[in-house]
Structures are given as C-alpha cells and as structure tokens.
Amino acid sequence: MGIRRLTREQARRIAVRAQLLDAERPDDLVATVRQLTLLQIDPTSAIAPSADLVAWSRLGSAYRPEQLKQAVEVDRTLFERNALIRPMSDAGLYLAEVPEWPRMLDWLEANRSFQQDVLALLAERGPLTSRDIPDTCSVPWASTGWTNNRNVTQLLEFLARRGQVAISGRVGRERIWDLAERVYPADVVVPTAAEALQIKNERRLRSLGIARAKGTEVPVEPAIVGDTGEPVEVEDTPGVWRVDPAALATVDDFEGRTALLSPFDRLIHNRVRALELFDFEYTLEMYKPAAKRRWGYFALPILHGDRLVGKLDAIADRKASVLRVHAIHQDVRFTRAISKAVLAEVDDLAGWLDLAKVELPSS
Quick check: pTM over 0.85? Predict the structure, then answer.
C-alpha cells in the first residue's frame, strides 16, 4: 500500500484538534497539560503570562491562574522543569535525561563540598530560593554570559538535571528549590533514556497531531517525532510527515472555533510547520525596535476554524483597567462572521483579565 495523502485542510484540522483548539473545549487543567505535554513559562505579561494564555485559550474564562499554582505547588499534579510545566505523570521521562558534559562534571567535582552544603541546607530548611542559599563554592563558575559567577543558581540547575533537587514553586518570578524527593512522587518510574525518548516522541506526536520525523533543532522543545506514528504526504508540501494514527480516524469530523493564541503556543511555535500547513508567517517582535515591528510587541495569533487568519496587537493596561487593541492585522480578508467572532474573543479576553473595557483602534 502507498503512503496516505492528506489535503492541507485535513492536516490543519488534525493539528488544531490535537492542540485542543477545536469546538470541543476541555474542562480540566491537568488533563489539558497532559495532552499538550507542556506549558511554557515566559515572564512577559503584556497581556498575560504565556502559560496562562495557553490555558485560557483551551479552557476559556473558567480557568484562573491560581489553578496552575495549586496544581504545581500543592496538588503536585504538575511540575516545573527547564521553564516548562509538565504533568507529574511524565516526571520519570524527564528524570531519565541526565545531560552531562566534561566541563559540568569537572566543576561539580571541584565543588563537592558546595554540593553537600546545598543539599544539607535544603534537607534542613527547604524549600528555599537561590538567594537564601549561601555561596560556598571552591571554584566559581566561569562564563562569558549571564551565568558567570552565579554559582548557586548554576549548581541548582545541575543538581536538578541529575534529579537531586527540583523546583517546588515560585514567589513571583523567583523559583523555590527543594530536594527532589519532596517534589516528585516516591513511586516515580524512571525508564531508560531510549525508552523515555520513544515515549516522549509518541506523546509529542499525539500533542501536535502531525509533525516531521527529523528536522533542525528548535528552542525549548523538539518539533520532531522520529519514526513514531504513520507516514503521510500533505498536498503542496515536500517530503513525508508523521501523523498520530488516532487522528486519522476522525480527520473529516471537525468543528472549529475562534481563538486568540499566545506567541509561544505550540500550534505556531514551529514557524516552518506553521508556514507549510497554515500559510502563516509569524515572528515574535518584542525584541525589535518599535519602528521595525510589523504586527506588534506581543501580537497574538488568531485562529478561526482551521485557519490562522491574523494577529491581534493589544496590551493590558491594568492601571486604567483597559484592554487596548492597537491593531487587528488580517492575513486574509475577514468576513463579517470572522470579525464578529474575533471581537467576541477580545471581549472574553478582557473579561478574563478583569479589565473593565476594551479600547479598539479607530477605523
């Protein structure tokens, strides 16, 4: 049998449904993160932190940020690692990762007493922020970047990679650290690295719906899934894709909705895939000078059905209690129905943010 061929519309629908952005909204935060595999932490809050925006775009205004804090810090149904929030049921997959390189090993060996000091302090007084932990290192960490001489933070990062410490929670943007045994469940199962890689590829494909087997490295989380799933071709795109087999059974049974997405949303995070499947070009422009921005400081991609149709340039003015919409950029010409649906989402966003009104751009 030959490789199955999908239309781009079918491929988009698989991707949208896999990301829980179709009409059938989820109603449980932990189950949502389990399907998405992660929520990315980013401190930018021009509108709201990315993790909260991603949760809101799936769960709607019933979601409150306190629920995420409760799940991570109290219920321990979610955990933070490497600026990503993941389901605690997947903890073993990431504890199986022990990336070590000679410079790291040499530095840890030179600072054995420093390690013992930190672990003993956490055992006695934890959880603690890094500023609460004395720097007793023998050999400072040398770097040409921002980590230079940040010895406590660097040691905590290395010990977290080894599964000896973990992030227990946050105070504002500051991480709170504790012994890993107090954060992860006692019965966590840690597979081999090879087993973990295979399971993570399967989880990632289920979350993305459709992805490439191989590709260039991207920040935060791989966009590739190896040989898991089934091979398919997609019209007007080169090469072979991998698809979650379960998604193929319902590929033509789709009902969409309109959603405002975080700039870090996994639906558009892989810019190449977004261009190939959705004809959607996007760049996060908050690091660009204002005069060089096309779409805005923290523009939110706009999903309508199975199409990415534009970007919302807005900012939450909390002092004035106003969601200020600077522009709604149309990648395709908005119909009356699209305009109405987008404005309804804007109103819903303002309500979720507890802002009193929306200020739209003058026409």
Answer: yes
